[in-house]
Amino acid sequence: MRPLSNGDFRLDPRDRGGPLQPLLIARDLRKHFPVKGTGGKSVKAVDGVSFTVRKGETLGVVGESGCGKSTLARLLLHLVVPDAGELVFDGDLVDTRELPVDELRRQVQIVFQDSYSSLNPRMPVRDSVAFGPFVQGKKKQQARDIAGEMLGKVGLDPDLFGPRYPHELSGGQKQRVNIARALATDPRMVILDEPVSALDKSVEAQVLNLLRGLKRQFNLTYLFISHDLNVVRYLSDRVLVMYLGRAVEIGPIDAVFERPLHPYTRALLASRPSMDPARRIEEAPISGDPPNPIDPPSGCRFHTRCPFAETPCETTDPALGIWEGPQSHVAACHMHDVASGHSRLAYG
Amino acid sequence: MTDAIVLDEPQEAFEEQALPATRVRGYWQSVFYRLRHDPVTLVFATIVLLIVLAAVFAPLLAPFDPYKESIVGRLKPLGWRDHPLGTDELGRDMLSRLLFGGRVSLLMGVVPVLIASMVGGMLGVIGGFVGGRTNTAIMRTMDVFYAFPSVLLAVAIAGAMGGGMANGMLALTLVFIPPMCRVAETATTQVRALDFIEAARASGARTMTIIRYHVLGNVLGPVFIYASSLVSVSILLASGLSFLGLGVRPPLPDWGLMLSTLRQSIYVVPLVCALPGLAIFITSICCNLVSDGLRAAMDVRM
């Protein structure tokens, strides 16, 4: 098993909780978006998700489209205000006097998927990068200097690319600018919301390597959201699997990829196209579309598509096991709960 | 499980294929570049400029005092004695009156649009950005004004407040605020949904800072284009108000008012009577064509 990569992690000068305090704890986060014309029903985009991100690690988040990954990313920065649940950043409860949202945003930044729309089309990219430091109190010239330096760090010549407008850059270059923009305010944690999904494969590899290098250089913690399992495996130390607004499995990356516990994770992993033509997928490992998040299925949300579904799955909502440490690997599935009454107990 | 992509360790130097060393052009620079290569717009812009200059320098250009009446020289045709464009029903020199009238007409064309773009634009940006109930409140109020045809609304407001140049301008301003507000609101709503607004918020920027640095620059274009197209409408409406006696009061020269008072003499000196109308027509059509050119130059997806 690959050692978790925070061995060379240095504590940030702003650190408050010590090395063992997780950098971010999300507890039972919930966000329901009301849908007009349904009589008060709502899309349960994120419905009780809990996890921790340790200092210096990369937590991958995977799941199908529409499972709430991006909403989760926005909840973590309070760009979308959670309906319920709490966030603890380095021991401080977010959105209280302990850690106001403004203060959180000095320490956590985000990179969006769409590199085009995340840059102001009427602003030279250097000014886009300088905006963060400027808003956080730097003088204009100082902010511009930081921006130039950050552009250099992401591999763009500040004199050549700084004065350009977004439409004059390629997708990969724009995403580099976005990464520079996120890093310009010197954050401790960066949320990467599908940062490479819109890029072609060769550029994707470059950007992933850039992200790896920057993590080491700036001592960062990543939350890396993607639907591409290979990319997640390449970058992450641990992985959280989401299904329909819920966390269904969480564990160290190799453990999850080699011994997936939840049938959904298994299906997800099996759906990857194989490099080996002999192991071609003949049948879709998972059938149908995800159920409507307005009316999620009762009990286990996956039971409508699960090959092992039994009575308890339809009635009881399985809980995600208790988090017992960095190596703990747990799944929200009745097959891993002795008390559930499921006939196929797999003591994983 | 060996399908994970194999990548090299991070390289220190990224071989970035530099774009060809083209001259970097900002948005406004590229607009001017396109305008420079649009001869039609350039020609009409020159005409508009000449009209504006003629109005500004009317005191220097006018051969006579526009208020000087003459009992004997009433309603004379084009080219009569020293009057190249003839005289009106009180014997005043038409050329001088047209030049001075241009000042009033252009003022009535530009000032209401300017004020309306600022007020309406601000309301639209605020409504569009804040959204929710604030937006509904602002936009539904605007819809109330929309319910009336613009001419009727202008006449009603000017009529209720009484004539005069200031009241005429106020009436026109009120007429133009709702459409201006709608344009700004639409543009703002489109911009607001983009990720860079969210990214700015994630950097800790306040709403007003985001509006100032990220929204205004993107809304200015559409608002400016629309405002330029309203200038000719405003000139026409202002002339209409004056024609009906609700705008400028005599003896102040104004194209609409001149048209109104001269129309009784249409059988005496038809060409002279047509002159103010011609001035209105040329000015408004030139403004419209320049506005179209601006739209073509500015309305570019980048």
Question: Brief description of this entry?
Answer:
The complex is a heterodimer of chains A (about 350) and B (about 300). Chain A is about 30% helix and about 20% strand.
Topology (elements, then pairings):
The complex is a heterodimer of chains A (348) and B (302).
Chain A: E1 24-34, E2 42-53, E3 58-62, H1 69-76, E4 84-89, E5 92-93, H2 101-107, E6 108-111, H3 125-135, H4 140-153, H5 158-161, H6 171-183, E7 189-193, H7 201-218, E8 221-225, H8 229-235, E9 238-243, E10 246-252, H9 253-258, H10 263-270, H11 311-315, E11 330-331
Chain B: H1 27-36, H2 39-56, H3 58-61, H4 94-130, H5 132-146, H6 150-161, H7 165-192, H8 195-202, H9 207-243, H10 255-262, H11 270-298
Helix pairs in contact in B: 1-11, 2-4, 2-11, 4-5, 4-7, 4-9, 4-11, 5-7, 6-7, 7-9, 8-9, 9-10, 9-11, 10-11
Helix-strand string of chain B: HHHHHHHHHHH
What share of the residues of chain B does DSSP label as strand, in percent? under 5%
CATH H level, superfamily name of chain B:
MetI-like
N-end to C-end Cα span of chain A:
17 Å
Can you describe this structure?
The complex is a heterodimer of chains A (348) and B (302). Chain A is an alpha/beta fold. Chain A is 29% helix and 19% strand. Chain A has eleven helices and eleven strands. A seven-stranded mixed β-sheet of chain A has the order 6-7-8-3-9-10-11, sandwiched between helices. A four-stranded antiparallel β-sheet of chain A has the order 2-1-4-5, with helices on one face. Chain B has one domain: MetI-like (MetI-like fold). Helix content of chain B is 68%, strand content 0%. In chain B, α4 (94-130) packs antiparallel against α5. Chain B has helices at residues 27-36, 39-56, 58-61, 94-130, 132-146, 150-161, 165-192, 195-202, 207-243, 255-262, 270-298. Chain B is elongated. Chain B is mainly α and 302 residues long. At the A-B interface, α2, α3, α6, α7 and α8 of A face α8 and α9 of B.
